[in-house]
Amino acid sequence: MGFPKDFLWGGATAANQCEGGIFEGGRGLANVDVCPAGPDRSAVLAGHREMLAMDGSHRYPAAEAVDMYHHFREDIRLFGEMGFKTYRLSISWTRIFPEGDETEPNEEGLRFYEEIFKECRKYGIRPLVTICHFDCPIGLIRKVGGWRSREMIGHYLRLCEVLMKRYRDYVTYWLTFNEINMILHAPFLGAGLVFAEGEDEERTKYQAAHHELIASALATHMAHEINPENRVGCMFAAGSAYPFSCRPEDVWEALLTDQGNYFFVDVQARGYYPSYAVKRLRKKGIFPRMEPGDEDILKRDTVDFISFSYYNSRCIAAPGSATEEAEGNLFRSVKNPYLKFSEWGWPIDPMGLRITLNQVYDRYQKPLFVVENGLGAQDVPDENGRVEDDYRIDYLREHIRAMKAAVEEDGVELMGYTSWGCLDLVSASSGEMKKRYGFIYVDKQDDGSGTYARSKKKSFDWYRKVIASNGEML
User: Fold this and answer.
1) Could you tell me if residue 1 is inside a domain?
2) Per residue in 214-232, pLDDT tens?
């Protein structure tokens, strides 16, 4: 039986991690551009260090990234050679509205993405477009404070309308926000939030999240009106939370972690704030301010499908437990003694993907789409310039097997799979180039050196065969 015949195999990138060219084509500056590499990155991502411009003492990897801005035709040709059915990409908001609040879009930016979509069509690749992938114009952060302001909804919807009308003939799959739950863990990255001293950060984060949820619902409504063929999904960072032990306190803490992870999707897929969130936010005195009609908007415009990233599961222990913390992820987790770990300390758990697929599908009964999954590793070309990345093939093979079991044996409705970083790009969490995910090696190093030359890794040919066999040849 296997995967459906129309299963959407492909790869995924984000504009800020691959495009570069941030000072070209009339583009403005965005939050993701000013997140530096190095030890200050985490404080900037968390909104605890204000950085709304580039300075001379930091390196900003998004400025050049892997220069897809000038290489997109070559890159899409390679995606076509692998047989991609879909390519998940994001739009750089500031290529379209450089400051974020203009009334007229930047035509040069619109033409750039139109050329990308034309290239995709040439190879039979259907674009899956993330409208906002960790992307907030610096102009709007300065003027209104990012998503803490309800004014952001109008600016975002103007962007959506321009994109959906301009690309009506090219795009029918849309994601409103990337990893919307990341606003709680990296609020500057997720919503352009910079906190003042003494500010109630939790209150601000949940208020900003409410604004994004309303914007997402209104964008979903708009997409269906502009083109009835449009299908709109939400997207969250997934990964089931395992209790560290069968101790009831650990089980309870894991349940709370899962609820916190699903909260945003509960709203986007079911159309209302879940009772657990209402109770807890009100008890803390941080339930977001709502405008009249907000509840109706959320209820009316739920998403058509649910997409998510899956890199690993999480292991949760009750506070005060003498357990070793896992490294390398933005989500808190203790070390799972039954799993192996990547070079960056991320657990490797293919079975966890099957568990996550089942839990999410059981919860929402809507089609699912795995839009990020992959292994970050230091790929070193051999004397012939070849990367023999068998470790990546092993990782992806086992995760695809887990997906296949979820579809074949468990009855999960799965639309597609886009492996993260189908070509090497800048890591969002660490800002590094050496943490590579791609099937395509890009000659760009952490010190800024490199030719940007593209070359196929061993996994390139392996993934081509996976797609050609619809997941039968693994």
Assistant:
1) no
2) 999 999 999 999 999 999 9
- Of the candidates 236, 245, 222, the one whose C-alpha atom is nearest the C-alpha of residue 267 is 236
Question: What are the structure tokens assigned to 385, written together?
Answer: 């310039």
Residue 75 sits at the vertex; the CA angle it makes with 71 and 78, to the nearest 5 degrees, is 150
Residue 2 lies in a domain: no
Rounded (5°) CA angle 366-288-157:
60
What residues act catalytically?
372
Dmax (CA) of the chain: 65
Q: What is the mean pLDDT of residues 104-126?
A: 98
The pLDDT of residue 333: 81
**Looking at residue 1, what is its pLDDT?**
77
Q: How confident is the model at residue 365 (pLDDT cuts 50, 70, 90)?
A: very high
Residue 327 pLDDT more than 70? no
Within-domain flag for 3: no
Whole-number Å distance between alpha carbons of 313 and 402: 13
Split into its structural domains, the chain has a count of 1
CA distances from 241 to 251, 252, 460 (A): 9, 11, 32
Domain that holds residue 290: 8-468
- What's the whole-model pTM score? 0.97
User: Residues of the chain with pLDDT > 90: what percent?
Assistant: 96
* Residue environment code for 166-195, b if the CB has 16+ CB neighbours within 10 A, otherwise e: bbeebbbbbbbbbbbbbbbbbbbbbbbbbb
